Amino acid sequence: MSRSARAASPGGTIRVGQIVPAAAIDPLKIADGGGITVMSQVAETLVLTGGDLTARPLLAESWSPNNDGTVWTFKLRQGVKFHSGKTMNADDVVATFDRLADPENGSNALSALTSTLSKGGTRKVDDYTVEFHLDAANGNFPYIVSTDNYNAVILPADYKGDFEQNMNGTGPFKLEKYTPKVGASFVRNDSYWGSKALPDRVEIGFYSDYQPQILALQGGQIDIIQQIPVLQGVGLLKDPHVDIIAMPSTAHQQVHMRTDKAPFEDKRVRRAIALCLDRPKIVQGLMKGKAKIGNDSPFAHAYPSTDPNVKQREKNIAEAKQLLEAAGMKGFEATLTVEKYLEIPEYAVLIQNAVKEIGGKINIDQLDQGAYYGDAVYGKSPWLDSDMGITDYGHRGVPNVFLSAPLKSDGTWNAAHFKNPEYDKLVAKYIASLDLDSQRTIAGEIQNLLLDETPVLFAYFYDFLTATKKGVAGVQPIPMGQLILSQATL
């Protein structure tokens, strides 16, 4: 512990600024960083994962697989109480995952659970032991019930869908007041199972943009900005009155291209666009060095299973023009639909300018985050229905969700409408593998297949940046969007 942390005082109110949640705070449906931050004050998952990609006990004390990874047994922590006073047990865990895995409920968690865990697959052994009987072997299953899967917070078995009214979780803070579009306040949960929260209260204010948050931090109205984009927050990086918590992450902005519609049904066009991007320049210019180069697959350098021998894609305008010519095209026109979030609008302009070198014309349609996601189902979502789009993807400790939800033929987030049986088989093999060497071998095949097909661009993986007022200590951001404040001090 640093001297400043030792000198800091417990108690008081921690004031947080963040972007307005895009939708209601509903654990089943929530999908945006703003909502996840609010939910993380009051609700918890079985497992905690952070920037170091390590899975740690939270509401589960331990876990272990059977010989082939098709059944995982979790031992639950005893003495945990919901804010209502009810003791958490195996019935609550079973009900939570049956609720999430039931297609009738339309849960956002199906992005992680589809083809992995079905309703009825979560079974009670005794009051504090649960078995997960999987649809297929999974070597990294604990990450699916961790903070990586932000929907997987444990709720009471008799949950009625009224989370926003009472936020009845197991977390270190209890809801005091929630006002949609305005903010929320929380008070210490004195019945918390772990170390009691140091702050008396947490106040979260919602902002429609980042600049007002920055001014509020510099003006002393708030103590923390949950996440700052590099471009708008560049002034804070050198502000002597501000500390920046920078966490390397696997978070990224996916650029999808509809593989079933012109002009992107021809993979040569998709590859040509990929070859227009100068990735080192993007990292240094757009992201001010606060990112790592991507290679058009979910396999970030940070993942131990990534095959480092796969050749890095580089800008090559001559090859891009050759690919377009081979596809019988001298140029193309498309609309790029984007959400107003972080650096995505600026990234869209960068892509727009880059493809001009090969005769490409991209029109940008920028939407507020809520409008961009729509109902988050096919036919009712600009995200999933657009010909080309840019979508923010939060950090995950393993690449399984990135491999499955946006890229498998039956993926719930497959905005590229990419359907490739060979890819689907490789992903199933990767997910089933229990050892790192096998995972790395399969990963290399997946990386090369995606370089050839290029349904989605993964140009960079960015650092997660949280800004705090000088003197604030004990703040624990999680790149997935959760913000742990129980040990925060002023």
UniProtKB/TrEMBL annotation:
Name the record gives this protein: ABC transporter substrate-binding protein
Enumerate the transmembrane spans.
Answer: none
What does the sequence similarity comment in the record state about its family?
Belongs to the bacterial solute-binding protein 5 family.
User: Which Gene3D superfamilies would you find in this protein's record?
Assistant: Dipeptide-binding Protein, Domain 1, Dipeptide-binding Protein, Domain 3, Periplasmic binding protein-like II
Could you tell me the superkingdom of the organism this chain comes from?
A: Bacteria
Q: Where would you find this protein in the cell?
A: Periplasm
Q: Name one Pfam family in it.
A: SBP_bac_5
